[in-house]
Amino acid sequence: MSGSPTPPPPAEGAEEVRGLLARLLAAERFAVLATQREGQPYANLVAFAASEDLSTLFFVTPRATRKVENLRRDPRVALLVADSRNRAADLAAAAAATGIGEARELEGAARAEALARFLARHPALEEFARAPTCAAFAVRIRRYLLVRRFQEVTEVFLDP
Amino acid sequence: MSLVLEPQAIGPGDRPVVGGKAVRLAQMLRAGFRVPGFLCLPADAYRRFVAAGGLAERIRLELSRKDAAAMRWEELWDCATRIRSLFLRHPFPPGMDGALRELLARRFGDGPVAVRSSALEEDAPGASFAGLHASFVAVSGAEAVLERIRLVWASLWSDAALLYRRELGLDPGQSAMAVVVQEMVAGEASGICFSQDPGVPSQAVVEAAWGLNQAVVDGEVEPDRWIVDREHRRILEHRPPARRGRRLIPAPGGVRFEALPAALAGRPPLSPEEALAVADLARRAEEHFGEPQDIEWTRSGGVFVLLQSRPTTARRGGAGGDSRAWYLGLRRSFENLKRLRAGIEGQRIPEAERTAAELAAVDLAHLADAELALEIERRRAIHRRWQEIYTAEFIPFAHGMRLFGEVYNERLKPEDPYEFTALLRRGGLLSLERNRVLEHLAALVRERPELAACLAAGDCAAAAPDFQKELESFLLRFGDVTCELGGRALCAGALRPLLHLLHEMARRPSPGPRDAPGPDAGRLEQAYLASFPEERRQEAAELLDLARASWRLRDDDNLHVGRIEARLREAEAEGRRRLAAGAADEAALRGALAAAEEPGPSPAAAGDGEGGLRPRQLRGQPAGPGFARGPARVIRAAGDLERFRAGEVLVCDAIDPRMTHVVPLAAAIVERRGGMLIHGAIIAREYGIPCVTGVPEAVRLIRTGDLLAVDGYLGIVTVGEGEL
């Protein structure tokens, strides 16, 4: 027998994993956004869109909300995107991605660009997103945790 | 599925695809009736249009704002207006408009067409409401035809359709609309005919007028009328109209009225033989369809053309007992509104002013008890009459600004469907004038400390007689500022609330002119006028002028009627005072006061966290753009208004015209009553104050002192600090 075990060869290449992540982010419309205030976690549903390179997730929200107040105090967030459909089979069949990163509110040209991307995905939210009282946020994702087949977790690091 | 269908391709079972109108037209054509040629855009064309670019979801979002059953008629109009604006601005999916243009041009060339709705549900058993959906005649040019097609599609969600949404089974995920594009036959005379009078089964009824048929259908011209004996095929009676004054004719960009040439005005549009021929035509349609028919026809070059035929039952009104149907049905034509305005401005308002002044001149204190009792009854009758005038004339005139809004949105397709209100503002509203005088009085108090002292003491008569004179002249001109609210007995005191209000106003710095946000009205007006061809600009300017009068009256009318009501309350208060003091003729006064309205119990506030629930975000209509935060001041009774402080958010059931004096003090307005063009919204827009209307139970759910964030862009009211 040989000494130290050799790591198993990856079942799939990085390309494939990123492809899967890209398909998941393109197919889903809604994400769970996690923020916190003084240690108290807070979660809510947002409509989102992802940048081409998956490094950024965009969402919009009225400013007079708890999440905006939380983000003002601490911009660190997690976003959960999942394709589960409330079926028993989801346990094994569903995929979920948790993105971890920092959110910042966009203004000017950056806001316009983000809205174009966001509205291409959610055209019905045009009046809502374009209202002066609606803030556009970009979440720069440092890494994703991709969960499949019940407990198989792959970390996907994005270029800084 | 093809984008358009030829009549030959439409069978009797195709109603779910092409709608009832197209099926009947195809049937008539096959049966040999003379019917204008047509093409049909099946329901799938609608589905393709709304599926692209999220339009279907937008409609769903718009409809989810509020349960249609809970909407006031103004809100139904608003909802339909926003959906209409979405359709006007929504692009065709790639390739669709090009294909449509080509198909339509191949069939109709450049000639004028009629663009008609062919609803899948319309005239279906149990849901036959006429006039729900749009139809347009004399439309020329590909661009105009495509726009009318959008408007017909949008009319699936017309205000009247929304009113009957449940009965019609309207569902944003399922419902669709087919469209008939039809050759335009510009007949020299037209009308309608009931093959069998629903009231007198032995008779048929023919109606005819010179010009296009639309004028008869819309009731815009009074037709000649023939009663025909069905069995013996003979005319029983011919009733000419009071006057044959005008006719509807095709014109560039649509239709217009013109004065009837004298030669035509002198004779009926049909000879007796022709009237019988029309009755025959209806009879043939009845035989073909197997039940009495209500037809629309036109006579072109001596030939009678059948425009439409449907069962007589289809023309009946909507569900009984729903007053919203009545309000929406008040939609008037431009001509009609002009006549209404002339009557209101020329007679009603001067009369209201005279009446109020005449009543004010009566010295109640010198009347004997029995005389006072009679005076109370007299004033109640006068007030009742003015309430009737208010309902019958003033409210319908509010459709003036709505008509303008529809035309403005069609011409300019603005992003904000309420952009048109910017052109109506600054029209010299009475309540704004009153607020200007109040601000002038408050400025005097700021300058002269002795006035603040006498205001605080509640009496300025001795300390500052000149100021007292100004106060009295204010009261004479505008009445008591709080008279209308809740506790009506307060009305009699008159001066005290004014003193209190001025004291409060003077405690804060002069507000300075608050500029309403929004686009430059002058530029908008130019763009509006420029969107019309030269020959229609005069008419466009007249419509704008009419809309401005309508906007102004929507505010002023309340004050006019309010002044008369104040005189009734004043007399009632005098009666109560005498009863309390032991009147000589107690029975007479008691009788006169028996019918007096007592203020109802004010709605109770919801407890803190009632049932473990607390509202956080309340949705309403974005009736005045802007965003503001402030503590709530919930108005439930007259005293609440007196306690109003600058910077608070005014939360009320419905802004009463007599509450508008605190509006300039308010950070924002939240109102239970819904609508984008109701009194509160108009005042808020005039002052540039954020306003959300149509928040269900606002007065119950929000408590005085709650911190509110009012988003007048999105129509959201956020309650509380958002602690975690």
How many β-strand runs of chain B?
A: 20
Q: Please report which band the strand proportion of chain A falls in: under 5%, 5-15%, 15-25%, 25-35%, 35-45% or over 45%.
A: 35-45%
* CATH architecture annotation name of the domain at 7-183 in chain B: 2-Layer Sandwich
By DSSP (H or I, 4+ residues per run), the number of helices of chain A equals 5
CATH top-level class of the domain at 7-183 in chain B: Alpha Beta
Provide the CATH topology of chain A. Pnp Oxidase, Chain A
Helix content of chain A: 25-40%
Index terms:
heterodimer; A: 160 residues; alpha+beta; Pnp Oxidase, Chain A; six-stranded antiparallel barrel; globular; B: 724 residues; Dna Ligase, domain 1; D-amino Acid Aminotransferase, Chain A, domain 1; Glucose Oxidase, domain 1; six-stranded antiparallel beta sheet; 26 helices; 45% helix; 16% strand
